[in-house]
Amino acid sequence: MQDEQNAAQRGYSTREELQKSRALPPIEKVKEKRVCIIECTEEIPCNPCVQACKFGAISKEGLCKPGVVDWDVCTGCTQCVAICPGMSIFMQRIEDGKGYVTMPYEFLPEPKIGDKAQLLDRSGKVVGEGRIVNPTYQAKGDAYPRWVVTVEMDDPELSYEVRAIRILE
Amino acid sequence: MEDWRVYKHPILEFERGKEVTLYLDGKPMKAFENETILAAMYANGVRVFSRSIKYHRPRGFFCAIGRCSSCMMEVDGVPNVRTCITKVKDGMHLRRQKTFADKFAPFLNLLNLSPLAYNRMFTKPGIIYKPAMKIIRQFTGQGSFSKKIEESGEEIMGIDDEFSTELLIVGGGPAGLSAALEAGQRCDDVIVIDDKEQLGGQLNRQTHMFFSDVKYAAGKRGFKLGKEMVEKISKLKTVRVLPKTNAIAYYPMENKMLMLRSTDRGLMVKAKKYIVAVGAYEKTLLFENNDLPGIYGAGGVQTLLNIYGVKPGKKGLMLGTGNVSLIVAYQLLQAGIGVEAIVAPSFRRVSGYLVHAAKIRRHGVPIITRHTILRALGKQRVTGALITELDEKYRPIEGTEKRLDCDFICMGVGLTPSYDLIQLFNPKMVYSSELGGFVPVRDMQFRFAENAYIAGDCGGVEEATTAVLEGGLAGLYAARSLGYADEEVSAKIDEYEHALEEDRGSPFSSDIKAALQKITVENIEEVIK
Ligand SMILES: Cc1cc2nc3c(=O)[nH]c(=O)nc-3n(C[C@H](O)[C@H](O)[C@H](O)COP(=O)(O)OP(=O)(O)OC[C@H]3O[C@@H](n4cnc5c(N)ncnc54)[C@H](O)[C@@H]3O)c2cc1C
Ligand code: FES
Description:
The structure holds 2 protein chains of 2 kinds. By secondary structure, chain A is an alpha+beta fold. Helices cover 15% and strands 31% of the residues of chain A. Chain A has one domain (2-167). Chain A is globular. Chain A starts with 6 loop residues before the first helix and ends with a strand. By secondary structure, chain B is α/β, with parallel strands linked by helices. In chain B, helix 11 packs antiparallel against helix 12 (487-503). The longest helix of chain B has 18 residues, at 464-481. Chain B is globular and about 70 Å long. Chains A and B meet through helix 1 and helix 4 of A and helix 9 of B.
């Protein structure tokens, strides 16, 4: 039963579904640099990501169309991660055999470099343990305070799945 | 005693005032200035506020914004005070109404003292009415004033103030505030009122970032957006802001509106034009035991948690998969409160945005679709819920019942437009399920009565950006018809109309758009005559 569900019934898109809709960056890009992934597949009226990208890497055909990333242009600056109201923008990077996922974080405890964290996939399943490498607190004009956190994981494959963390105290 | 307050939150800081002492049925308890009585009681673990008249069922709170009257208590000798909108004061004496029955509730139920539950009984002959009433009220009534208060002989409310204005805006949510901003920059004399102490409407309890166009609201957290708008308005000399002012009646013959200020001062205002932006209130759901303390509206939980920083429970069950339900589930997680599951009958899809659903799925909260709640479990408060699977015709499938563990149940099953005030303008009301309930027919300029405009959720439940845009437009339309018409106003109107069209461009809005078209007419005069 669970398998037959589509994204809208399940409440999230799977890696395969995202791949099909070309939301995931090609592997060469992920190995070359940190790039952004927009997991926002529905037509909703929203555009902060387009405005937030200083490099013009994100475009939308209209207010309601899903955002499209130009991975050649994306610098991995994380401004879009910090502002996305749907918390649906992430960054992925594979380097030296390790995986890195950057994500918005709005929970406690506050993240610190070196913190250990449980890695959760899109369904909330714990798929491993990782380390926090680069937490930044983004509070531009204090309109949208939010942590943007990068976690490192030993299995690079996991960087396709991990979308949330639970920091272990 | 366990303290249910949240002291550390990832997004919010709670401004608690000085510590004060309240007395609940004589027992002291700690509270902070700025808290409502409801928040203070909850923080102290009190869950039953009164008992129902006939079956002595325990009563808790539901809406937390003064709309449902479920939270009433006797406060300093005054019965039936809505504790969710009354702030605490040092030394306040609170009494739970009819809870003498706490111990005897099952016994009283058995006896079923139903005749005593009706004030109609013993009205004749006249001489027995008074003593009989006294006894009935003792047992079942909604309380009486203390001797002290009765003897002080306070006047029945009169009209303390009366004035006129160009434009009166009722409701200080995003729609009303936006109307005040636009009209205030053009008209000479605008008043905006709201029954709450703090303007901002629904925005005040939203901690998440808003969608939509960055030009209007997107990327800002709701409560900040409200504050920003209030600040901008406070800089306009043309706008008077009256908080704690409740519009209770409108007299079409005289074109006057009656308001209650701070619960005891009458105010009559005659305005050339009115903008009604009174928002919407929460719907509820029918199931066995749905009146137990611990069953709340999603908005009620937001108020308690996000405004006062008090936990509604330890683990909740959410009903409904609309955006409100999904967002509140996430906010519960943020405050460290468990969410057992989200349950909804939806077959085709979760009804809210997928991104909101994904936010809670990735934190491990299951969304159980094709299911509904059968019954809330528990006697004095919620201890669980019984859910069942549904077949294609939404009938429960026997043998699929499942028990879920939770100590509160939160309904996010939609909003319905507030129409009580609107109706007094004698508009043509129609029912629209797409718009959430009864709404008035209006023209292209949002006019639903001779002198009145509508904006925001009360004209059809949508979201904050559309409320801001509709409110802005209503303010501009009103200004124009008051004679403040120039090219700049027309250009601004064009801009807003275009933005509104664009904002409703998503498939999520297509039903709403069609429904709005159906109730919009060319000439409102023909409809209201
Ligand atoms: C949980 C939740 C999440 C939401 N998330 C989003 C989102 O992400 N994006 C989005 O765009 N929208 C969102 N919304 C919707 C948005 O908050 C509302 O659509 C919007 O606030 C409606 O604005 P309004 O001005 O029409 O009404 P309201 O905000 O309801 O304001 C009406 C005001 O009028 C006052 N009032 C009512 N009657 C009277 C009276 N008789 N006298 C005086 N004052 C009166 C009320 O107290 C209130 O302050 C959300 C709503 C909820 C509940
Ligand atoms: S009126 Fe207080 S909870 Fe509804």
